[in-house]
Every structure is written in C-alpha cells, then in structure tokens.
Amino acid sequence: MRLYLIRHPRTLAPPDVCYGSSDVEVSEHERGIALARLRGVLPRELAVYSSVRRRCLGLARELASALGSGPPIGDPRLVEMDFGAWELRPWSAIPRAEVDAWVRDLIAYHPGGGESLEDMACRIGGFCHDMRTAGRDAIVVCHGGSIKMLVAWSQVLEGCAETGTLGLVGAEDPDVGSPGTGIAAGGELPVAWRARIAEVARLSVSYGSAAYGSCVVLDMPAGKPAQPAS
Predict the structure, then answer these.
(1) What is the average pLDDT score of the chain?
(2) Which long-range contacts (CB under 8 A, 24 or more apart) does 13-19 make?
(3) pTM for the whole thing?
(4) Which domains does the chain have, with CATH numbers?
C-alpha cells in the first residue's frame, strides 16, 4: 500500500510564532505553487484524505479536483500537534522554563498543557490502522509532524511484521482487534499499545521535516482486513 504524503503550503503565520493545531491559513499564491508542482507527479483518481485544518483542506480540494478524485475526506486525527497555551504565541514569549521542561522530556511532556508526542502518535496510529485495513493507495494532505508520525508508524510496523511480533503487546493488536472496539471503529489505539506508541514518538523526533508543499512517498505494510461484525 502506497501513501502519498503531502505537507501543506507555507502558512501566513509569522515565522517566530508557535502554531500546531491552530487553524492558520495559506495564501492563494502558495497554494497555487504547490498545486502546480504536485498535480503532474501524483497518480490520478486516488482517494484524498486531509487534515481538517484550512491550510490542508484547501490544497486537498484543489488536488482532488485536478486529479479526478472524489471530494477529500477530512480526518481530525491528521491535525498537527496541539501546543495548548503556547499556540499562536511568539516563541520568545513562552517561559524558558517550560521550553526546557519539554526538551528534557520530548516524548511525554505536554507543552502548554496540550498534547504530548505520545498523544499524537496514538491518534495518528488510529488513522494508520484504518488505512492499512483498507489496503488501498491514497493521497494524504497533512502537516510536518503528522508526516513524521506516519513514517515512524510504517517503520515500526514493518519491523514487527518482519520479526513476527505484531501481536507482541497482547490481544489488542489492531490487526486482530474485535469489531466495535475503539480502534476497529476508527478510534485511537488501545492502551496496550503504549510501548509501541512511545517507540513511534521517539522515532518521529529523529526525522527532518518535509518541505512545504512537497510529497513524501510512503510504502506502508498492509494490514489484515477488518472482520465483519457477527
């Protein structure tokens, strides 16, 4: 299964401002540059998924139209990390002690009282599971952090498949999850996956960010089809 991961165009937010989940916009000019670059290299008629933030949805709609796809499917699990009270504040205005605390514990700390990287890895993992279950190539328009998480999940799951440890953390492995559970119903990953979630979060911080308006091609290990409810 191949995913074409598109980072949104450069936003109108000032360069010194912290923004993650905030709904900042992009200019039509930047969106047009990205569209012209991408429409000639992406496959036609694939499903297009998108973060629900405007900087992603605007490009997703135009790509879907240009590529003969249906309307993009917005998914809130693809949103960038929530920085809580830090959102839309200049980095220089955020207390140094809080930034230092985050640097000391990048994986579990909640900057500004928002999400930790583990939280984000958990919800991105839910989206990843659904895509693996569907098993179809797709275009995904999202954010730099979301792309890192998807790449990290792909690497972790590929390693698990190669070593036969997909079920290592117990019966709640999403590949064999029962219908009606949170993960099978499109929710987040079960608590039993915490060790793997932490591994994904750690991996994600080691990657560089994709350029604005660029495409990362990701070959994701396919999952088992969802079992029908009895």
Answers:
(1) 86
(2) 13/88, 14/90, 16/90, 16/91, 16/92, 17/88, 17/89, 17/90, 17/91, 18/83, 18/86, 18/87, 18/88, 18/89, 18/90, 18/91, 18/94, 19/80, 19/83, 19/87, 19/88
(3) 0.86
(4) 2-219 (3.40.50.1240)
